[in-house]
């Protein structure tokens, strides 16, 4: 039967802590990315909560199409 040496235990603990730190960092980055997406979407909305047209002339196109019909 193999007995863990103090070095084995120390290395295993270091690996566990390193993994936990990476998971925390990954979660932090994911939250930051999610926040950035929310800001990006919010910046695309007008005051009524609808998406603004990406092209300024786009807001006139439906009216022009209706006028032609």
Rg (C-alpha, Å)? 27 Å
User: pLDDT below 50 for ≥5 consecutive residues: which ranges?
Assistant: none
Helix proportion range: 55-70%
Mean pLDDT: 82
The number of distinct helices, counting runs of at least 4 residues, comes to: 2
Number of domains: 1
- The strand count comes to 0
The global form is rod-shaped
End-to-end separation: 86 Å
Report the structural category: mainly alpha
Major sheet: none
SSE run: HH
How big a fraction of the residues is strand? under 5%
Structure characterization notes:
By secondary structure, this protein is mainly alpha-helical. It has one domain. 67% of the residues lie in helices and 0% in strands. It contains two helices and no strands. It has helices spanning 6-43, 61-68. The chain is rod-shaped, with a radius of gyration of 27 Å. The termini are far apart. The model has no long low-confidence stretch (mean pLDDT 82). Residues 40-69 are annotated as: Disordered. Residues 52-69 have a biased composition (Basic and acidic residues).
Sum up the structure in keywords.
single chain; 69 residues; mainly alpha; 2 helices; 0% strand; rod-shaped
Compact description:
This protein is an all-alpha fold and 69 residues long. The chain has helices spanning 6-43, 61-68. The radius of gyration is 27 Å and the shape is rod-shaped.
List the helices and strands and how they pair.
Blueprint: H1 6-43, H2 61-68
């Amino acid at each position: 039967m193999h007995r863990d040496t103090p070095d084995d235990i120390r290395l295993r603990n270091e690996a566990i802590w390193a993994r936990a730190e990476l998971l925390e960092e990954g979660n932090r980055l994911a939250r930051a990315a999610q926040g950035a997406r929310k800001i990006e979407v919010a910046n695309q909305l007008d005051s009524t909560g609808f998406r603004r047209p990406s092209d300024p002339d786009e807001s006139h196109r439906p009216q022009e199409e209706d006028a032609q019909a």
